[in-house]
Amino acid sequence: MTNASAVYKKLIKPLFFLFKPETAHHISMTLLNFMTSIPGVRSVFRSVFRYTHPALEREVMGLRFRNPVGLAAGFDKDGKYAHAMSALGFGFIEIGTVTPKAQPGNPKPRLFRLPPSEGLINRMGFNNDGVEALASRLKKRGKPDCIIGGNIGKNKVTPNDLAHEDYRRCFHVLFPFVDYFVVNVSSPNTPGLRELQEKEPLSALLQMLQDENRKKSEQKPILLKIAPDLTNSQLDDIIQIVRETRLAGVIATNTTIARDHLREPATEIEAIGAGGLSGQPLKDRATEVIRYLADKSGGAFPIIGVGGIQNPEDAAEKLRAGASLVQVYTGMVYEGPGIVRKINKYLASRQKSPA
Q: Which residues are catalytic?
């Protein structure tokens, strides 16, 4: 355990866990923003959390990543913390999910810790300031010093037959400010959204975005983020759609509606109610999906692996299964920001990616 990890687990984590999860997130990110704005402190953060090695560098989707560890979407929905988070050693940061219009999301409480299982349940509901506010913020502050992805979705009030217009608007408004896009049709917290994962509407949506992409003087990679709850038949459809639309890749996976591998009493889980489960309980299923996609497609497209990465071995397992890159979210909550350096140091010690 690195010193940063030890300090987080012994001092910082117990303090933050005294607060409700959403409050703790706001406090921690506000503090990080403030501290990294102090002259000289940002350099200290980089020296503590970053780990660089030539073996970590990756070229994926035509983009050069300084390391394969990214921050998953949902942690920084509005691009408020991207500059500060870039000092923590990430090779890339995915902001969003963002929608055309600002929306408050679902009623609170909507984020729940499951400490015995090292998981989270959320039903945030795409709470964000809207794509115009995000683009304005990115334009004003400039690009952080790492690869930036834009995760786009639809507003809750937009019917599915008009969803393509929401994705189109987000794509065009964000285009100057991000390096790649992720189409999110797999969140369980927007009613009806997952219906867009069905073969026909998904093909039409992705083809529309690719057509818009080709109109640009310089195209940008577009990926699809999928749910871990898809059947093998549905995953076969995903592979076919990715090939037909020439999509850049897939992010596997989003949160799950399943409640498997939990250590909490069933009554506690029932009391929490609906939402997407992330963290350690999702680890095995996310890896299964990655392996299936990689094997059945013959490695035809890049996969970004996410779901249950709590330590370096978990990250290496995703890479061995067929992922080109990995992302963390819940692991940051339970292990602290030191997890990024630990993963990168472990991968570098093996001299090459185990993918």
A: 187
